[in-house]
Amino acid sequence: MKKILKQDSFILGIIVGTIAPLILFGILYYINLFIGSFYNNVRFVQTPTLQLAAIIVNVLLMRQYLVKLKYDKTGRGFLLITFVYILAYFVNDYLIK
């Protein structure tokens, strides 16, 4: 598994950049539901805040690939997907709602 993640590939950046925030969002969402179940189903953190927190994982991974590993192609894949996620967040939060 480590060998797969240690490649300089644009496609790898897109794949990992797409999956990592989704996994983190799912974990944060269910933690929020679990904690809220103890307090009469009150959600402590709103869903848009969880979405932004999930996007932060891409920024951290992008820094890891660009600065420490010097994998420019993989970092560009992360950058592309991060922009797509941020654009989707703003369209969803401000234009649709």
H/E element order: HHHH
* Count of discrete domains: 1
Q: Report the average pLDDT across residues.
A: 92
**Strand-pairing-aware structural class:** mainly alpha
Radius of gyration: 16 Å
Please, how many helices? 4
Shape: elongated
Let me know the number of strands.
0
Proportion in helices: over 70%
Largest sheet: none
Beta-strand fraction estimate: under 5%
- What is the terminal separation in angstroms? 40 Å
General description of the model:
The protein is an all-alpha fold and 97 residues long. The protein is built from four helices and no strands. The protein has helices spanning 2-5, 10-37, 47-68, 72-96. Helix 2 packs antiparallel against helix 3 (47-68). The model has no long low-confidence stretch (mean pLDDT 92).
Features:
97 residues, mainly alpha, 4 helices
List the helices and strands and how they pair.
Layout: H1 2-5, H2 10-37, H3 47-68, H4 72-96
Helix pairs in contact: 2-3, 2-4, 3-4
Summarize the structure.
This protein has 97 residues and is an all-alpha fold.
